[in-house]
Design goal:
Distance between the termini: 69 Å
Shape: elongated
Order of helices and strands: HHH
Structural class: mainly alpha
């Protein structure tokens, strides 16, 4: 059971790391599309739009920021890769089927115990109800006899 908890912790941690990786990717794309200036890539296609100078970063800052974004992505991708490699190998189907059959048997036993407990509780309830009715009936008869 402790091993299962450890594996679930790793899966949760992996999920968190993947979400952080996606967030870094999303923020990187947002930065690259919002802080880049339009450049002419082909002589046949002229640049028809320009951004205000305060809306884009100078080329040196833009390149430095791109390198930092790539480094952040690489670090997070390595963390995700490490967590994936640390996950246990999948259980063979036969062993998994045997384990599930054992759990099914345990569940049937627990259900039978539960049904017996419910019947016992109902019987006890009926006995208590009968005893209370008997006490009330006897008390009412005693009160009437005393009057």
């Amino acid at each position: 059971m402790l091993q299962d908890l450890s594996n679930m912790d790793r899966i949760t941690q992996l999920q968190d790391e993947i979400q952080q990786l996606l967030l870094i990717m999303s923020n990187s794309i947002a930065y690259l599309t919002s802080r880049a200036n339009f450049l002419q890539l082909s002589a046949e296609v002229p640049v028809t739009k320009q951004r205000n100078p305060e809306k884009f970063d100078v080329p040196e800052v833009f390149e430095a920021n791109k390198k930092e974004l790539v480094a952040d992505l690489m670090v997070k991708a390595k963390q995700v890769e490490y967590l994936i490699k640390s996950l246990p190998e999948p259980e063979p189907e036969e062993a998994q089927a045997q384990r599930l059959a054992g759990l099914e048997h345990e569940m049937q036993i627990a259900n039978a115990e539960y049904i017996r407990a419910v019947h016992r509780a109902k019987d006890l309830h009926a006995q208590v109800k009968e005893a209370l009715l008997q006490i009330l009936t006897d008390t009412d008869a005693d009160v009437l006899a005393e009057s």
